[in-house]
Amino acid sequence: MLDYIKYIKLIMLLLLLLLTPLMGVFIISTSISYDLSYLNIKRIKFTALTTSVINLIISFIIFILFDFSSKQFQFVQEYHEVSYFDFYLGVDGLSIYFVLLTTIITPISLLSNWNSINKEIRCFVIIILLLETLLLAVFLVLDILLFYIFFESILPPLFILIGLYGSKNRVRASFYLFLYTLLGSLFLLLSLLTMSSIMGNTDYDALYKNNFKFLTQLLLFYGVFIAFAVKTPTIFLNTWLLKAHVESPLAGSIVLAAIVLKLSLYGIMRIILPLLPKASLNYTYLVYLIGVITIIYASFSTLRTIDVKELIAYSSVSHAAVYLLSVFSNVIQGIEGSILLGLAHGFVSSGLFICAGGVLYDRSSTRLITFFRGLTQIMPLFSILFFILCLGNCGVPLTLNFLGEFLSLYGVFERSPILGVFASSSIIFSAAYTIYMFNRIAFAGSYSRFFSFNISDLNKREFFILLTLVLFTVVLGIYPAPVLDGLHYSVTSLIYSTPNII
């Protein structure tokens, strides 16, 4: 009897992971008075934060109970004939880390705008909790049509978040985000409907047992890759990201950089590599060419920008192009490196956005590098944590970013040494623009003459948020075994070996 109860508890964990934020939304929407006094606003925020922390604890329980010696889906839950399809939930060695990343970043995004959002607080926290549920659903569903539904369902909350709480050009940015990604995903929908029509099934396990004809794989690859290229984003398709990052509120920038940009990486590993292996091998060099051009273009664009938030957004495009290259390397080290780099970028970019938007902008109302100088003299704690995050963004050894970039570039070299050399330029460029930014802000002489009063150093909330992200970056950089050991079995199944591709 006890074993049966334990089995029921284990099998319900994934459903609980999805329902917990929705329960928080329900409590905030119904149980809290509409009197928006200081105490009620504080209660709304603490309810949302408590909900996200509970979800974080649930995800850690799943991680502890997860069997990493198997590449099968675990904690599988099946709900038959929900609407017109069956609802399947499950987690494997690939998705478990993206689930953890989502549950870690959500409370951080709530805390980042703890004091800076002063209007429509209830709406703000509800949007963040809804985004957490929808993003978790993308990583947990075991059906390609459900994957597409949740993949697209994050757009309305992001559209409202940027449109309501963004900067002066927020409406334009929210429409860019919505229309760009929606248009790209139409090609994904057509490809997934074609797969469903051929197979008569949309379940991952059933699709993985099929081997599509080579010509069919090529046609399907076009549609799927266009959608993921927009979401990554690659060159000529990255206009929406820059506008969305710059105009978005801080929580929106964190969610965009840390989680939304990883949806394309996850989708490639879940759909393209296992379902379209021959097409992906044939088009690797085209993907590599696009990725290398993206790295060089984004890096040069980053070097010339003077807006701190825009600089971090451009650097995100460059790092995303690196893990896009490595995930197509068909090498174990390369695919594992792409996941490591994706996780590392999630921690470091979140920290840098908090430094730019949550610390500097909130205190000075400007993001231009030219206005800052000599902040080390009055903000020593901020300067230390900012420096460590900048080192992570450069890929310095003893950070998780270094391991991710090293393994990623190793995989790229294995596949194409010439393009690997060009891709490696991202190391030089990232060091150039990141250290340039840090040097201008933290040093460059005495405290800036543009400010008539001193800026206060980090408060407790900001310090512990940044310290958490720094610890994840450094500890996993020194001891990455918890991630790498769990990836081996699942990544091995993505490697496709064929002597001749026809």
TrEMBL record:
Keyword terms of this UniProt record: Electron transport, Membrane, Mitochondrion, NAD, Respiratory chain, Transmembrane, Transmembrane helix, Transport, Ubiquinone
Highest taxon of source: Eukaryota
Annotated compartments: Membrane; Mitochondrion membrane
Residue span(s) of domain NADH:quinone oxidoreductase/Mrp antiporter transmembrane: 143-427
Primary location: membrane
TM ranges: 12-34, 46-68, 88-111, 123-141, 147-165, 177-199, 219-242, 254-276, 282-300, 312-332, 338-361, 381-398, 418-442, 463-481
Topological category with respect to the lipid bilayer: Multi-pass membrane protein
Single GO molecular function: NADH dehydrogenase activity
Protein EC: 7.1.1.2
Example of a GO biological process term: ATP synthesis coupled electron transport
GO cellular component: mitochondrial membrane
Reaction equations catalysed: a ubiquinone + NADH + 5 H(+)(in) = a ubiquinol + NAD(+) + 4 H(+)(out)
Family: Belongs to the complex I subunit 4 family.
UniProt xrefs under NCBIfam families: NDH_I_M
Summary of the function given for this chain in its UniProt record: Core subunit of the mitochondrial membrane respiratory chain NADH dehydrogenase (Complex I) that is believed to belong to the minimal assembly required for catalysis. Complex I functions in the transfer of electrons from NADH to the respiratory chain. The immediate electron acceptor for the enzyme is believed to be ubiquinone.
PANTHER family for this protein: NADH-UBIQUINONE OXIDOREDUCTASE CHAIN 4 (PTHR43507)
Protein name: NADH-ubiquinone oxidoreductase chain 4
Organism annotation: Pertusaria plittiana
